[in-house]
Amino acid sequence: MAQHNIKLKDLTKIFSLGLLGKKRIVAVDRVNLEIKSGEILGVLGESGCGKTTMARMILRLLRPTSGKIFFDNIDVWGLKKWSEIREYYKNVQGIFQDPYASFNPRRRVLDSLYDTMRFLPDIAHDISKSREYLREILNSVGLKLEELENKYPHQLSGGQLQRVAIARALIPHPIFIVADEPVSMVDASTRIDILNIFIDLKQEYGVSPVIIGHDYSLAYYVSDRIVVLYRGQIVEEGSPEVLEDPAHPYTKLLKESVPLINRKWSKKFKPNIVAYDATVRGKGCIFAHRCPFRKPVCIEKEPPIVSLGRSKVRCWLYATN
Amino acid sequence: MAGFLKAFKRSNVWRLLKKNARFWICLMIIIAVAVLGIVGPYMTKYGPKTPTGEIMAPPSSKHPFGTDYFGYDVFAETVYGIRVSLTVGIFAAIIATIVGVMLGMVAGLRGGIIDYIVDTVINILLAIPPILIMLLIAAFMGKRGIIELGLLIGLLSWQWTARAVRSQVASLKVSDYVATSMLSGNSFIRIMFKDIFPNIASYSLLSFVIQLGSAMLTVITLEFLGLGASEWSLGAIIQLSVLWGAIPLGVWWWWFYPGIIIVALIASLYLIVVSLEEVFNPRLRRE
């Protein structure tokens, strides 16, 4: 299969606040990333770290402040013609966090799916053919076409609806599916099922999901490669084994905050939570104010990206000079 | 459509509307006035400007609303006047609602330079009292028919609708389901009609009733100032009665009957808006 990729080059998004736009929130800060087809990329980070912003920029829903996004070397935000944008969406699809918010409450869910069918004109023109196609797609996410007949979004459960959302994204046989917290609004018991669907998609359809989330163990479970975001910057990037023995202090902190089945509450696990003003950014490391291993240089200068063999870390601790 | 009606009958809106006595009374009044305008001309043998030979005759079985200083039948004048005034008002309200909803949707959805231009025009129209512009243009208009006057009023009173629709659409635009719709490869027009419009349809209906009330008032004001669409209209009767001293002469029926119809019509339209707002806005519900 041909290799495809999405490249983010110095991708930055700054939101201006206040009357004159004096306050700035840097949501995504010079992110460089290559997303390759054939793997599941997990993007991990706490709330407000810019993961949703990143997803929306890749999906061409939010214009970046600076930086570029390339899909197979085509500048995504340089696309002007509707047909070119459609072609992009045929290859790159998205799933959102809240399944109820991502379907028009006034339309039947199947109508929304039939809309997406128009990516495949030869099938879409034939009603019986497109029904068969939909039935197949819905089967692959564990749903029956008959169950959805004449149903409105509020008549389905969150888990069902999120499967419909995945089915919708799957219709044009995209190369990438950017899933923004696909399981966070889904009942805990169906989470693994939905994550398994993503793994199946990769194996059966050759779709490469980009799964964005805040859940450490889920990211470990599903991903082939992990990216850890903090305040808009990639702080650590590597194989999922990185999560077993993290290098960056922030990833370590994340790992320690995961509640485990054999670990009861005790005074030992003090959360290292520091309130910070999102509009203020120092010139040093963005994690310096919370870092237990802080050195003077961390506040003074931005850390370099250090390659540690299996992962890349943005931290002064591993810098050789 | 049948499914929609069924769903509507089961909905909260219908349940609340059914109990709202004020809404039904006002609706009855408006329908009664409209029926009077439609059927009235067939109930009288006089035209609006047919001399009856009787001058300033009080209401009687022959002349239900009496006759005026010129010997015209006030009932005939009134029913023909309702036709003219109501037609202009409805036409103007339709124009204002369509223009307001369309411009608001395009501005809110497209953003950028289009939004900037629409917003500037809205601000200009909000800053200058539209009645002044209407007076100026109406006074210099060569032909002042029903269509011309309706267009004039409609095209100068869409600003509130457009502003409200624009802000609602701008917030709907960033919703996840519009994003999903874009990912589905739907075109701008399709998103506008399939995803955005159904969510502002109830507001558009409400806006039409508001527009109708204010358009009626504007129409009657212009008619009263002698800039009506026709020689006979509700406002024109009041204007003549004032000019020819109906009050000092004691010819109260000359202005009372058309006046009470104007008041009933506009008050009912206003109260219907209040009732509909109560039904659509959960915070105003009185239960």
Summary of the model, kept short:
Chain A has twelve helices and twelve strands. Chain A has helices at 51-58, 82-91, 109-117, 121-124, 127-140, 145-148, 158-170, 188-205, 216-222, 241-244, 249-256, 296-300; strands spanning 5-17, 23-36, 41-44, 66-71, 74-75, 92-95, 176-180, 208-213, 225-230, 233-238, 305-307, 311-314.
State the low-pLDDT regions of chain B, or none.
none
Q: What's the pLDDT, averaged over the residues of chain B?
A: 86
Gyration radius over CA of chain B? 22 Å
CATH architecture of chain A: 3-Layer(aba) Sandwich
| CATH homologous superfamily grouping of chain A | P-loop containing nucleotide triphosphate hydrolases
Q: How would you name the CATH homologous superfamily of chain B?
A: MetI-like
Task: Kindly give the count of domains of chain A.
Answer: 1
Q: Biggest β-sheet of chain B, characterized?
A: none
**Element-level helix/strand string of chain B:** HHHHHHHHHHHHH
Q: What's the CATH topology name of chain B?
A: MetI-like fold
- The main sheet of chain A orders its strands as 6-7-8-3-9-10-12-11
